[in-house]
Structures are given as C-alpha cells and as structure tokens.
Design a protein that fits this description.
CATH topology of the largest domain: Rossmann fold
Structural class: alpha/beta
Order of helices and strands: EHEHEEEEHHHEHEHEH
CATH architecture of the largest domain: 3-Layer(aba) Sandwich
Number of helices: 8
Radius of gyration: 17 Å
Number of domains: 2
Shape: globular
CATH class of the largest domain: Alpha Beta
Distance between the termini: 43 Å
Strand order of the largest sheet: 1-9-8-7-2-3
Strand content: 15-25%
Largest sheet: 6 strands, parallel
Length: 230
C-alpha cells in the first residue's frame, strides 16, 4: 500500500543501476519536485555524498543551497556500519538493538559518540561558509542525501532541523529502502524518492552505475564551484 506522503518515479521502482551518478540522481529528484508548489525552497545537503545530489537538485529548482552536517557513529571494526548518528547541533541517536546485538560495551559507545562529535565539528569548520542557516520558518526545507538505507542518520538530521525551527521539512533521496522510507515519511512533510526498493540485500550503491565514496575535499570543491557563500 502506498503511503500518502511518499512520492516516487514508478518507472524506477525496484530497479537497480538507474542513475549514471549522484548528479543524475539529483536530476531525477527534480522531476518529482518541479511540479510541487514550494515556498522559498532551501536545499540542505548532507555531506559528503549528498552534496553532488543536492547541487543538481538546487540548480534545477533554482533554490538556495546550504549544508547540514550529520555523521553516523560507526562500529570500531567496520567504518561502513553505523549504530548511531550525531547532528550539527550535537544531538545524537543510538540503535540500542544493534549495540546489544554486536556486544558493544558502554565505554565503546561513549568513545564512538565522542569521536563522531569531533568529526562533525571538523566538518562544520571545513564547510563553515555553507553551514550558517537562515531562519527556517515559513519556507520549504529540502533535506538531501544520496540514499536512505537504515534511516538513522537522516532521522537525526530531521530532529536537529526541527529543533532549529523547521516547520515544513521535505526529504529528497534518489534511492531508498521502502521500509526505511515509510519510517522517515512519518517524521517529515513529504518524502521524495526516485527509486524505491525492498528486500534484505538493499544497498544504496546499487542504484548508481558509477559509484565512489565522495571525500570531504571533493564535496568542498563542488560547493565552491556551484555555491555562493553567504
């Protein structure tokens, strides 16, 4: 059953390899959003992978672009697997079920939170020209990442933006796992996803024909090329 505030491209449903790269994903997102009535839209990119998506989307929507720094808290032995996330305002959320499942000790969790807060603070300095947010009320905020798997990082970002005063918040991702999209849709005013997929083997990278990890330097260079700092 389709959730009322989830918008997708039906022709991309359950397909893989549908985007040439992240920028192409942003272009397809623009197809979903271009007919939406938006009031003073502000696109907020989650670095680093969300930056090329957000740039393409913001250019096509002729919207302002800023950065919302959020980072996942990763397992000590696996830098790709996250058990929590920290937002730009210091707020965080933990997946207690996963923590218990893998047997993390409380001191390991505390160390992970501390290390991730340091990473967020470093990225806030790196992207400082793009992180100063204007007043967030009475406008449409479009939070953008390159994909939605478990959804924990984006949940933390949404909560931080609500605390910052966001009253109308949309989420836009080129690809998402269907169950995570349903959970996140309940926390925002609209979720736009070009490529919804289900199944236990979901991977964000599978939606892209050309995929690489976007580093901080690449993201900062893209922002410098495409954005005017405030």
């Amino acid at each position: 059953m389709r959730q009322e505030n989830i918008y997708q491209l039906d022709e991309l449903h359950e397909k893989t390899g549908v985007f040439a790269d992240r920028a192409a994903g942003g272009v397809r997102l623009a197809e979903l959003l271009c007919n939406t009535e938006l009031e003073r839209p502000l696109v907020l990119a989650i670095p680093a992978g969300g930056v090329p998506v957000a740039i393409a989307l913001a250019e096509l929507l002729q919207a302002s672009l800023k950065v919302a720094v959020v980072s996942k808290i990763t397992l000590p032995w696996d830098s790709e697997a996250g058990y929590g996330a920290v937002a730009f305002d210091g707020g965080y959320r933990l997946n207690r079920e996963l923590i218990a499942q893998v047997g993390l000790r409380e001191e390991q969790v505390a160390a992970g939170i501390l290390a991730t807060r340091s990473k967020v603070e470093r990225r806030l300095r790196l992207f400082r020209r793009y992180t100063q947010l204007p007043p967030l009320t009475d406008r449409d905020l479009i939070l953008v990442d390159d994909g939605l798997a478990s959804g924990l990082t984006l949940q933390v970002a949404v909560a931080a933006l609500r605390r910052a005063g966001a009253d109308r918040l949309l989420l836009a991702v080129p690809t998402a796992h269907a169950s995570a999209a349903r959970r996140l849709a309940a926390e925002v005013d609209g979720l736009y996803c070009a490529n919804l997929r289900s199944g236990w083997s979901y991977a964000v990278a599978a939606a892209y024909r050309n995929w690489h990890d976007v580093g901080e330097a690449e993201a900062e260079q893209l922002l410098r090329q495409h954005c005017r700092p405030a």
